[in-house]
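Page header: ASSEMBLY MODEL / two components / 808 residues total.
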Amino acid sequence: MGPSTITRGTNVNITDAEELARTLDARDALAPMREKFDIPADVLHFDGNSLGPLTLRSREVLHHTIDVEWRERLIRSWDEDWLAMPMRVGNMIAPLIGATQDSVISCDNTSINLHKALMSAVALRPGRTEIVIDINNFPTDIYIAQSVADQHGMTLVAVPAEEIIGAISDHTAVVTATHVDYRTAKILDAAAITATAHKHGALMVWDLAHTVGAVPFDARALDIDFAVGCCYKYLNGGPGAPAFIHVAPRLLAESGQPLQGWWGHESPFDFDIHFRPAPGISRFLTGTTTVLSMKSLEAALEIFSGVSMAEIRAKSMGLTRLFVDLFDSHLAARGFVLSSPRDPETRGSHVALGFAGGKALVDQMASQGIIADFRPPDLMRFGFAPLYNSYRDVVALVEYLARF
Amino acid sequence: MGPSTITRGTNVNITDAEELARTLDARDALAPMREKFDIPADVLHFDGNSLGPLTLRSREVLHHTIDVEWRERLIRSWDEDWLAMPMRVGNMIAPLIGATQDSVISCDNTSINLHKALMSAVALRPGRTEIVIDINNFPTDIYIAQSVADQHGMTLVAVPAEEIIGAISDHTAVVTATHVDYRTAKILDAAAITATAHKHGALMVWDLAHTVGAVPFDARALDIDFAVGCCYKYLNGGPGAPAFIHVAPRLLAESGQPLQGWWGHESPFDFDIHFRPAPGISRFLTGTTTVLSMKSLEAALEIFSGVSMAEIRAKSMGLTRLFVDLFDSHLAARGFVLSSPRDPETRGSHVALGFAGGKALVDQMASQGIIADFRPPDLMRFGFAPLYNSYRDVVALVEYLARF
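Prediction written out in full:
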């Protein structure tokens, strides 16, 4: 018996669902991972798509960073540990997105890294006049792309995801989209979009904010050019954890970026007045790492060394499938509207429900320790994170919503 | 009796100096501030110009942020506290640089903020063809300025500090320099340089990395246009603490910046696909705040609410004056060369000594818990931070160096 034994639309009652969830949890190989998180007993957390919870390891490492590395070792910690951290963290993220070692680095935030990627891409495709973007992309991506387009006198072609392929032409310098839609969790066809961009000689920048740590991605097999992503969602790096940027190794030597700061220099501690970019991905660094925030991220990433993205994806699909099945049987008739794909193959790790009173309901839930989030106009988003959410969590959520 | 009673070049012996330092410490109104820092008993810290030490308050706040705000409150903390933090922290920094409230915001790193300031300034002076910079500026400032110049087909005019005024012309769009030289601690004439820039219709961007928290600055009286600065030196924000940017209120409404992300939007949580800049200084934000790193900074800044920059400056001058006097009597004959100004009025809060074996000596000192730093080619830098360094610390440092 697996999650697929709950067939769509059957009127599973909650007692049956609880029984089923108990069985699924008992056979869940990832269930022990929850012990690595410090989630309060009175909290049900369905917001891994927005802010991952605290891990025991992050707390432990932060205490060490504060009390030993900063307090005792002071600047000696730069040589002893901190200088290498952006690359070390990048190399921990690389396998999660199918990227080769030394092609990912952690720094800054996602918006800034997207700016670097787009500026770099545009410089690699001089004379081209358009940037193509998913109009349903997270707005900051659109603002950043608009700025890059404006700086170059280019046109930003913003179209719905299903029209991206048709919008790409020989005028396109670069295409950018978010792999998993931040509202609906719909997974875009990365292979087809990337291939079309390349067919037209354009470059491809993927935003993996809702992908990394939840949905497999194979940067190498897809032969993408750039990726950026967020580390405070499914990677549990902590609030505002530094983001990451990936650049295909074949592009590194010719890639520049406008935020060329001392950390991107070939030899930062020479204090040379001429900028010479580092030979590798470090050239995408700018200034000093926010050590405390990155330490928390590095600690949280250790969890991923013991699990595979295939396991994570299998459980993610199990959790969202159970939620959608229970939506059909218990929520559809109560005014909730499924706004995520029904096919788990094209669905990321959260499920969005449209609901007229969604904002008020999410706030009420939060006041009772049930954490979800809300996106205009009426979407309640429920993130299901395989490393700490159980099947029983899913049932408890549906029980709550069904009583509303 | 004050520090000036040690006259230059007199052969003060160390026992006398210890006696004097004891007296000066006893009458130092800032001495009790040291209790707010957690500096190990076996450490002598002369590196406030590079990494300020841990404050008790930063540790306390970080524990609360980890265990309550992140662990328990999760995303609820954004509304409860975190969203307002960049502005709150900016407003704590504002009085330290003589800026008006709501004209400073904390975010990103100094290099990125300098990029925003220069791009913004260049856009405000279309048609002008030159950026003037101090060639002895911290190199990252030069790299960032070079990139902005390259993007606009402009010329970067890099000259020594004393030639800046002569290099400014009606072709100059923007002038940028660091107020306190990172190597020599020489204080530039901010009034004369700013006035000359303005006389030629150019804008002025000051880097206050070695100024803020150590040397008074009056952004309003000087009528500067932009400033950026670093928060992990004399502000003790923690390793890689977020930086800040200041924009003169008269320029805010017309200022844009290329890193226009969702945090700089007038209404970020509308998720509007059109960028509408926030009316105030928030338009210089880009993406999500690194909460842990900024919390540490905010906590450390509390110390400054109880002291004045005039008091800090007076003690800073007392400390560096004592060090220079003891240099004359005990170190000058041993191969050390004073590389900072003799006049305390034009000297910041560190003193640089040239020394052929400087790198090895700084490393050896670090291994013994005496923290200073080194900058090529041969400069040992000793930072004297009025909030935690004592006059006895200065004497202990000279005793060590004199024995070398």
